[in-house]
Amino acid sequence: MFNIKIKFATAAIAIAAAAGFASPAIAGQCPAAGSSDLANAPTMPKGVTDTVISSVDLGPEIGVDGRQLRTRRLVVQPGGVVPLHSHKDRPALIYTLSGSITEYSTACAKPIEHEVGDISREADGLSHYWINNGKVPAVLLSSDVFQGK
Fold first, then answer.
1. What pLDDT, on a 0 to 100 scale, did the predictor assign at position 23?
2. What is the b/e burial string over 112-134, where b = at least 16 CB atoms within 10 angstroms of the residue's CB?
3. Which of 33, 38, 96, 140 fits a disulfide with 74 by CB distance 3.0 to 4.6 angstroms?
């Protein structure tokens, strides 16, 4: 049953990504464009489990040596934190599978609330962090191009 959910969610990420390129409206988008000062952003994870579900070495596949395409399952407990990090040279798509989570981003003047079914596009040097302000765990699927082995 879990494998079916993962396959469905992976398919949903692919469909949402394709739809995102066709249309600028993505659920969970920045409510107020601008920049945010993240000077006091958290730098340590808290209440997060990060499990790599699968990965593909992109060298033999498409000639991008040293890079992997990977999909991870992140579970962020209530009050949990995914600390400040950058997506410079590491694009990603994040799909909210269950729960909700708040993103604080350099590209947005106000926090972004991601709910079930939302997809977040992370690229172009974006820096951000996430906090689960809810009462239930937030489960996210993250697919990114990662500097691998």
1. 35
2. bebeeebbbbbeeebbbbbbbeb
3. 140
Instruction: Return all residues near 60 (Cβ < 8 A) that are at least 6 apart.
Output: none
118 contacts 27 by C-beta, under 8 angstroms: yes
The string of DSSP letters for 72-129 reads EEEEEEEEEEEEEEE-TT--EEEEEEES-EEEEETTBSS-EEE-TT-EEEE-TT-EEE
Six-digit token string for 91: 């694009």
Predicted model pTM:
0.78
pLDDT for residue 149: 60
How would you class 145 by CB atoms within 10 Å of its CB: exposed for 0-12, middle for 13-18, buried for 19 or more? middle
Q: Which structural domains are found in the chain, ordered by start?
A: 2-147 (2.60.120.10)
Helices and strands counted in the chain (H then E): 2, 8
Which pLDDT belongs to residue 126? 87
β-sheet bridge partners, residue 54: 71
Could you report the per-residue pLDDT of 77-133, keeping only the tens digit for each? 999 999 999 999 899 999 999 999 999 998 888 899 999 999 999 988 889 999 999
Token pair 């003047």: residue: 109
